[in-house]
Write a structure and sequence with these properties.
The complex is a heterodimer of chains A (111) and B (116). Chain A is mainly beta and 111 residues long. Chain A contains no helices and eleven strands. In chain A, a hairpin with a 3-residue loop joins strand 7 and strand 8. In chain B, strands 2, 4, 5, 6, 9, 10 and 11 form a seven-stranded mixed beta sheet that branches. In chain B, strands 1-3-8-7 form a four-stranded antiparallel beta sheet, with no helix packed on it. The chains are: A mainly beta (111), B mainly beta (116). The interface between A and B is medium-sized, with 25 and 27 residues.
Protein backbone atom coordinates (compact mmCIF):
# COMPACT_ATOMS: atom_id res chain seq x y z
CA UNK A 1 0.00 0.00 0.00
CA UNK A 2 1.28 3.45 -0.91
CA UNK A 3 2.15 5.57 2.09
CA UNK A 4 3.40 9.09 2.61
CA UNK A 5 4.48 10.05 6.13
CA UNK A 6 5.47 13.53 7.15
CA UNK A 7 7.39 14.47 10.27
CA UNK A 8 7.25 16.21 12.58
CA UNK A 9 3.50 16.84 12.80
CA UNK A 10 4.19 20.30 14.19
CA UNK A 11 7.31 22.44 14.46
CA UNK A 12 7.85 25.71 16.23
CA UNK A 13 10.89 27.77 15.28
CA UNK A 14 12.28 31.11 16.23
CA UNK A 15 12.75 33.58 13.39
CA UNK A 16 16.11 32.84 11.77
CA UNK A 17 16.32 29.29 13.16
CA UNK A 18 16.84 26.96 10.19
CA UNK A 19 15.33 23.46 10.13
CA UNK A 20 14.10 20.66 7.88
CA UNK A 21 10.78 18.93 7.33
CA UNK A 22 10.73 15.28 6.32
CA UNK A 23 8.51 13.37 3.89
CA UNK A 24 9.14 9.63 3.68
CA UNK A 25 7.29 7.53 1.11
CA UNK A 26 6.74 3.93 0.11
CA UNK A 27 5.48 4.04 -3.46
CA UNK A 28 6.32 1.68 -6.29
CA UNK A 29 7.26 3.53 -9.43
CA UNK A 30 7.47 7.12 -8.25
CA UNK A 31 6.82 9.60 -11.07
CA UNK A 32 7.00 12.78 -9.05
CA UNK A 33 7.00 14.23 -5.55
CA UNK A 34 5.26 17.51 -4.88
CA UNK A 35 5.52 20.04 -2.07
CA UNK A 36 2.64 22.38 -1.28
CA UNK A 37 2.10 25.13 1.26
CA UNK A 38 -1.33 25.56 2.85
CA UNK A 39 -2.39 28.58 4.88
CA UNK A 40 -5.36 28.30 7.29
CA UNK A 41 -8.67 28.40 5.44
CA UNK A 42 -6.99 28.32 2.02
CA UNK A 43 -6.27 25.74 -0.64
CA UNK A 44 -2.81 24.18 -1.09
CA UNK A 45 -0.35 26.33 -3.01
CA UNK A 46 2.15 24.57 -5.28
CA UNK A 47 5.83 24.96 -4.36
CA UNK A 48 7.99 22.29 -6.04
CA UNK A 49 8.03 19.14 -8.14
CA UNK A 50 10.92 16.67 -7.81
CA UNK A 51 11.20 13.86 -10.33
CA UNK A 52 14.28 11.80 -9.47
CA UNK A 53 16.66 11.03 -6.61
CA UNK A 54 19.37 13.63 -6.23
CA UNK A 55 17.25 16.44 -7.59
CA UNK A 56 17.05 19.75 -5.69
CA UNK A 57 14.80 22.79 -6.15
CA UNK A 58 15.01 26.19 -4.43
CA UNK A 59 12.64 29.07 -3.92
CA UNK A 60 13.55 31.96 -1.63
CA UNK A 61 14.22 30.43 1.84
CA UNK A 62 13.00 26.96 0.83
CA UNK A 63 14.99 24.11 -0.68
CA UNK A 64 13.52 20.70 -1.49
CA UNK A 65 15.63 17.57 -1.98
CA UNK A 66 14.76 14.01 -2.97
CA UNK A 67 16.25 10.58 -2.27
CA UNK A 68 14.86 7.15 -3.15
CA UNK A 69 12.97 6.95 0.14
CA UNK A 70 12.34 10.49 1.33
CA UNK A 71 12.27 14.18 0.61
CA UNK A 72 13.33 17.08 2.78
CA UNK A 73 12.10 20.63 2.77
CA UNK A 74 14.87 22.78 4.21
CA UNK A 75 13.89 26.19 5.56
CA UNK A 76 16.79 28.61 5.93
CA UNK A 77 16.46 31.60 8.27
CA UNK A 78 12.65 31.40 8.36
CA UNK A 79 10.42 34.42 8.85
CA UNK A 80 6.99 34.57 10.52
CA UNK A 81 5.36 34.68 7.08
CA UNK A 82 6.70 31.17 6.45
CA UNK A 83 4.24 29.89 9.06
CA UNK A 84 1.88 27.44 7.33
CA UNK A 85 1.20 23.74 6.89
CA UNK A 86 3.53 22.09 4.38
CA UNK A 87 2.14 19.14 2.46
CA UNK A 88 4.02 16.46 0.56
CA UNK A 89 2.37 14.37 -2.18
CA UNK A 90 3.53 11.64 -4.56
CA UNK A 91 2.34 10.47 -7.97
CA UNK A 92 2.81 6.87 -9.07
CA UNK A 93 3.95 5.48 -12.37
CA UNK A 94 0.49 4.68 -13.65
CA UNK A 95 -2.01 6.29 -15.95
CA UNK A 96 -4.09 7.43 -12.99
CA UNK A 97 -3.75 11.03 -12.00
CA UNK A 98 -4.14 10.58 -8.28
CA UNK A 99 -1.79 12.21 -5.83
CA UNK A 100 -1.22 10.52 -2.46
CA UNK A 101 -0.81 13.16 0.23
CA UNK A 102 0.84 13.11 3.62
CA UNK A 103 -0.90 14.66 6.61
CA UNK A 104 1.38 17.69 6.62
CA UNK A 105 3.73 19.51 8.99
CA UNK A 106 2.36 22.60 10.76
CA UNK A 107 5.16 25.14 10.95
CA UNK A 108 5.02 28.13 13.27
CA UNK A 109 7.79 30.72 13.12
CA UNK A 110 7.85 33.10 16.05
CA UNK A 111 9.36 36.61 15.80
CA UNK B 1 -6.52 34.91 -14.10
CA UNK B 2 -8.67 33.72 -11.22
CA UNK B 3 -7.14 30.21 -11.35
CA UNK B 4 -9.49 27.67 -9.75
CA UNK B 5 -12.71 28.99 -8.23
CA UNK B 6 -15.21 27.12 -6.06
CA UNK B 7 -18.72 27.85 -4.88
CA UNK B 8 -20.05 27.97 -2.26
CA UNK B 9 -17.36 28.72 0.32
CA UNK B 10 -19.43 27.39 3.22
CA UNK B 11 -22.49 25.14 3.41
CA UNK B 12 -24.50 23.50 6.16
CA UNK B 13 -26.77 20.60 5.20
CA UNK B 14 -29.12 18.33 7.09
CA UNK B 15 -28.70 14.57 6.74
CA UNK B 16 -30.39 13.39 3.55
CA UNK B 17 -30.28 16.73 1.73
CA UNK B 18 -28.54 17.03 -1.62
CA UNK B 19 -26.28 19.67 -3.05
CA UNK B 20 -23.81 20.37 -5.84
CA UNK B 21 -20.39 21.91 -5.36
CA UNK B 22 -19.23 23.93 -8.33
CA UNK B 23 -15.69 24.30 -9.64
CA UNK B 24 -14.31 26.26 -12.59
CA UNK B 25 -10.78 26.89 -13.87
CA UNK B 26 -9.52 29.45 -16.37
CA UNK B 27 -6.06 27.96 -17.03
CA UNK B 28 -7.19 25.86 -20.01
CA UNK B 29 -6.23 22.68 -18.13
CA UNK B 30 -7.42 19.32 -19.36
CA UNK B 31 -7.58 17.49 -16.02
CA UNK B 32 -9.68 18.31 -12.98
CA UNK B 33 -9.99 16.70 -9.55
CA UNK B 34 -12.09 16.66 -6.41
CA UNK B 35 -10.44 16.02 -3.03
CA UNK B 36 -11.67 16.03 0.53
CA UNK B 37 -9.49 17.05 3.47
CA UNK B 38 -10.12 15.73 6.96
CA UNK B 39 -8.04 16.39 10.08
CA UNK B 40 -5.11 13.99 10.40
CA UNK B 41 -5.90 12.20 7.12
CA UNK B 42 -4.47 14.43 4.44
CA UNK B 43 -6.17 15.11 1.15
CA UNK B 44 -7.95 12.16 -0.46
CA UNK B 45 -9.07 11.96 -4.08
CA UNK B 46 -12.82 11.53 -4.61
CA UNK B 47 -13.12 11.69 -8.43
CA UNK B 48 -11.10 13.03 -11.28
CA UNK B 49 -11.53 13.87 -14.94
CA UNK B 50 -8.43 13.34 -17.06
CA UNK B 51 -9.98 15.22 -19.95
CA UNK B 52 -13.32 16.61 -21.07
CA UNK B 53 -15.87 13.84 -21.38
CA UNK B 54 -14.17 11.38 -19.01
CA UNK B 55 -14.46 10.81 -15.28
CA UNK B 56 -12.94 8.19 -12.97
CA UNK B 57 -13.27 7.17 -9.35
CA UNK B 58 -10.59 8.06 -6.87
CA UNK B 59 -9.88 6.71 -3.43
CA UNK B 60 -13.16 7.65 -1.69
CA UNK B 61 -15.98 7.92 -4.31
CA UNK B 62 -18.90 6.43 -2.35
CA UNK B 63 -21.75 8.88 -1.83
CA UNK B 64 -20.61 11.26 -4.56
CA UNK B 65 -21.20 11.84 -8.25
CA UNK B 66 -19.43 14.17 -10.65
CA UNK B 67 -20.10 15.92 -13.94
CA UNK B 68 -17.49 17.36 -16.28
CA UNK B 69 -19.74 20.00 -17.82
CA UNK B 70 -17.14 21.34 -20.26
CA UNK B 71 -13.39 21.91 -20.24
CA UNK B 72 -13.66 24.64 -17.59
CA UNK B 73 -16.19 23.20 -15.14
CA UNK B 74 -16.29 20.11 -12.92
CA UNK B 75 -19.07 19.68 -10.36
CA UNK B 76 -19.39 17.35 -7.37
CA UNK B 77 -22.83 16.21 -6.21
CA UNK B 78 -23.88 14.77 -2.88
CA UNK B 79 -27.21 13.03 -3.50
CA UNK B 80 -28.05 12.26 0.15
CA UNK B 81 -25.66 13.92 2.55
CA UNK B 82 -24.40 12.07 5.61
CA UNK B 83 -22.50 13.38 8.68
CA UNK B 84 -19.45 11.41 7.49
CA UNK B 85 -19.29 13.79 4.51
CA UNK B 86 -18.55 16.74 6.78
CA UNK B 87 -15.23 17.91 5.40
CA UNK B 88 -13.41 20.55 3.40
CA UNK B 89 -13.68 19.92 -0.33
CA UNK B 90 -11.02 21.09 -2.77
CA UNK B 91 -11.14 21.19 -6.52
CA UNK B 92 -7.89 21.14 -8.48
CA UNK B 93 -6.78 21.24 -12.09
CA UNK B 94 -3.66 20.36 -14.04
CA UNK B 95 -2.36 20.13 -17.55
CA UNK B 96 -2.46 16.70 -19.17
CA UNK B 97 -0.61 15.60 -22.27
CA UNK B 98 -0.54 11.83 -21.86
CA UNK B 99 0.72 9.53 -19.15
CA UNK B 100 4.41 10.09 -19.92
CA UNK B 101 4.45 13.58 -18.45
CA UNK B 102 3.16 14.70 -15.09
CA UNK B 103 2.13 18.18 -14.10
CA UNK B 104 1.49 19.89 -10.81
CA UNK B 105 -2.08 20.39 -9.66
CA UNK B 106 -3.46 23.81 -8.76
CA UNK B 107 -6.08 24.03 -6.04
CA UNK B 108 -9.12 26.17 -5.39
CA UNK B 109 -9.92 27.84 -2.04
CA UNK B 110 -12.18 25.04 -0.83
CA UNK B 111 -15.76 24.53 0.31
CA UNK B 112 -16.35 23.90 4.01
CA UNK B 113 -19.30 21.53 4.34
CA UNK B 114 -21.03 20.56 7.57
CA UNK B 115 -23.71 17.85 7.59
CA UNK B 116 -25.83 17.74 10.75
Amino acid sequence: EDQVTQSPEALRLQEGESSSLNCSYTVSGLRGLFWYRQDPGKGPEFLFTLYSAGEEKEKERLKATLTKKESFLHITAPKPEDSATYLCAVQKDTGRRALTFGSGTRLQVQP
Amino acid sequence: NAGVTQTPKFQVLKTGQSMTLQCAQDMNHNSMYWYRQDPGMGLRLIYYSASEGTTDKGEVPNGYNVSRLNKREFSLRLESAAPSQTSVYFCASSEYKGTSVIYEQYFGPGTRLTVT
